[in-house]
Amino acid sequence: MDLGLKDKVVLVTAGSRGLGRAVATEYAREGAKVMLASRNEQELAKTAREIAAETGSQVEFVAADLSKRDAVDAVYAKVGERFGRLDVLVTNAGGPPAGTFDNFEDDVWEQTFQANLLNVVRLVRGALPYFRQVGGGRIVNITSTSIKQPIEGLILSNTFRAGINALAKSLSVELAPEGILVNTVAPGRIATDRITELDGLRAAATGLTQDDVRVGNERQIPIGRYGTPDEFARTAVFLGSYANTYVTGQAVLIDGGMVRAL
Ligand SMILES: NC(=O)c1ccc[n+]([C@@H]2O[C@H](COP(=O)([O-])OP(=O)(O)OC[C@H]3O[C@@H](n4cnc5c(N)ncnc54)[C@H](OP(=O)(O)O)[C@@H]3O)[C@@H](O)[C@H]2O)c1
Name one GO biological process term (predicted). Predict the structure, then answer.
């Protein structure tokens, strides 16, 4: 299947590590040109170099804290300067702090709103003029299986991911007439630094070893193991490709069957 991505331009936020990096790599393998954005410039430069070396595609980067409006503007200035067009937006961000209701005052709620929901609004706003210039586009939002089944001890994530999902569904209706398809991908337990961190927190809280925590989690997954970032990326990239011409407004769980809800 031809994904129709050759020479398309893709912006992947939070793209230096983990899921964002894997998605960016998969786009580059398909011949797309990629812009990565996250905070640590050295890490971005290294990731961009490695993806370009593996795939032969053009990979650019811009250091930006995407919880800030100015930083989102700077990302689009760089997209304009380097590529002058945009065909696909992948919204991704660092995971919010773990905790329960009693752990957080307004300041943390507000910061998480900026970093994990308003960032998506701002990123979409910045992408639309580019999409309208070329007469279409693709948006893929990376969220979590918590959009279907809230996860214990992650109240901030549970709240704001649901907001992204509702935003994406609304956008899919508003933007379909313009040829812009909007979908959400929801990772369950894909082996990245974030999952190592969450397993570590669980181990510290329960007195179990980190391996025990992982084995316990794997028992909840019908496929019997954590997913790999590449497995996650293949589904995300299909939805955000030009082979996808009829799927929009959907949230696809990439979780090895972990969530039991219909
Ligand atoms: N892995 C999973 O199975 C899983 C499951 C459910 C949900 N998720 C969610 O999916 C997202 C990606 O997860 P991951 O596992 O890939 O995490 P990760 O390996 O920890 O990578 C996080 C990425 O986000 C970037 N980042 C963090 N804060 C940022 C900010 N303010 N502005 C710009 N970039 C920022 C990081 O780079 P810098 O630190 O340099 O900025 C890094 O590139 C997270 O929101 C996570 O909670 C993941």
Answer: bile acid metabolic process
Measured in Å, residue 28 CA sits from the centre of ligand 1 at 20
Distance 233 CA to ligand 1 centre (A): 14
Instruction: Provide the H-helix boundaries in 83-219.
Output: 106-113, 119-134, 155-175, 193-206, 210-219
Q: Is 95 in the pocket of ligand 1 (CB under 6 A)?
A: yes
User: Does residue 142 contact residue 193 with C-beta atoms inside 8 Å?
Assistant: no
Output the CA 93–ligand 1 centroid distance in Å.
Answer: 5
pLDDT at 42: 98
235 to 27, 159, 230: CA distances (angstroms): 11, 24, 9
Instruction: Output the pLDDT for position 120.
Output: 98
- For ligand 1, atom 14, name the residue with the nearest CA: 18
Instruction: Give CA angle at 198 (185, 14), nearest 5°.
Output: 45
What does the pLDDT read at residue 182?
98
Instruction: Return the pLDDT at 207.
Output: 95
| Spatial CA neighbour of 27 closest among 252, 183, 184, 243 | 243
250: phi then psi, degrees, rounded to nearest 5: -105, 150
Q: Which of 50, 69, 92 to mutate to test the pocket of ligand 1 (most atoms within 8 A of CB)?
A: 92
9-189+228-254: CATH architecture? 3-Layer(aba) Sandwich (3.40)
**DSSP-derived secondary structure letter, 102:** G
Q: How far is CA 168 from the centre of its chain?
A: 13
Around 155, how many Cα atoms within 13 Å sit in the side-chain half-sphere?
9
252 beta partners: 185
Q: Indicate the domain borders of the chain.
A: 9-189+228-254
